[in-house]
Fold:
Amino acid sequence: MKKAIYFLICLLAIMQNAEAQPFTHLDIGNVRARIHANGELFQDKVNQRAAFEVPKNSNSYTIYSSALWFTSVGQKNGSPEIAGSYEIYGNQNMFNIGPVDIINQQSENSMQFQRLWKVNQDSIDYHIQNWNSPNYSAPAEILDWPGNGNSNTVQNLAPYADLDNDNIYEPNDGEYPIIKGDQAVYLIANDYRPNDSIINPNETIYTKSAKVEMHMMLYAFNHSTEAIANTVFVNVKLYNRSNSSADDHNDFKISVYADFDIGYPVDDYVSTDTTKNIFYAYNGDNLDENYFGNNGYGVKLATQAVQFLNYDIRHSLYFNNSSGVNGDPRNLSDIANNQRNHWKNGQSTYFSGDGYNFCVDTNQTTKYMFSGNPTLTNDTTQWTESNPCVIGSSYPNSPGDRRIIGGPNTPSQLYHGDMIEFDYAYVFARDDDSSQHISDPVAKLLLVSDTVQDFYDNNIFTSIEQNKLKTENDFKLFPNPAARTVNLEFEETQFEVLLYDINGRLVKRLQNQKQFSVDELAEGLYFLKIETNNFRQTEKLIIQR
Structure:
């Protein structure tokens, strides 16, 4: 009886802690996705259920949990030292909500940062047009935007239009958040914590914080194209907030963890397509059943992917819902191994079988799990879960509850004071008709991923820092702010001018023009980019009348 009471108390404590965790939903497109303030994504923590619903209001889900992992491996006292943090299946999380107190080198726990920020572009547009109207009051989503920190943090946190260039977010003076998409959710978290160690039979592995402050903007579009409306985009910025070179990272690996549950969660396969920079899950049989009150996708099968948008995919590795060598990682040592294409015992991943137990003795290692194309059903050289042995006859793997990680090929150095930024997306596809083969939705996914990449390339302006090349041929634009006409001072005669609005939409393209009109454009913040064959630079342009 005492054990039962103790278990009940612990369970209630866990549920109360889950309920206390701030969360909101990104829900403007065809997806309703739950987001927690510490970076845990797409999980109903109270009920331990999936919370990435697509299509919205269908009661069908494709992701149980997702999060960001990062590690850096070094040495301490002759033993391995791993700096990093991770979250897995909604239960182990090393992230604190809020930014870093850079003065005292600890997590900043002020209540103003213990939250998320959800903003709609419609509200921003209305604010831009009406901020100085007599009867206008800015909504909380504009007023509360974390443009600035406090005296213990860095001065500027979330991006905003600084119209007077004073580094102070002043929404009552017409300034506003800069977001991507038609709706965005912004979160700030950090991994500051005490040093620790993992005691193994043969060695001690030291662990510590990576001293990282994580900014994530998850965003979506209310778009007429189904592929875009079904996609959640993510912009990630990782800042090393340490003030010491002792926390410089030379082996910094980033991965996105995804516990895909395509409707019925225990009948899935996983795969990787390096030509599309995606890793994904799909059904391992021809019927996706209902599961504990959630609707499956039935005979119209679905697939869910993670797609890296501005870096190539660096690696992928799956694991099962188990405690074995190729099962769930349990600590930072396991995480670091998995991110470097090793199983928990340090063995390399092999191109055959399930990657651990291989059936073709070629000793060929791989960085990408199940990298064959499942739609090429008659090609026995394709390494897929349906054809794990690659050569000759091959019995398919048993579908299961798969988890998988994949990482972008971002820089491996993250020194104190530096930042790494990358973009990725959660991409969904579903067969329009009853699926004749389990690979049918995969064929659609490969097309949808092209649509998403093209949309990103042509419409999403990622950042000023990422698109500026250092050069002596910098241009100047004036006046700025501009009312009607913009002038460029620039030595080159052959160049292209690209003008983007704050949503990344291209609103003007010009050739070799050093003076042009902006009379037809609304007031607000724009990004003006000049490109030549060997030069590229972007600057802010404010249109104000």
About this structure: DSSP finds six helices and 32 strands in the chain.
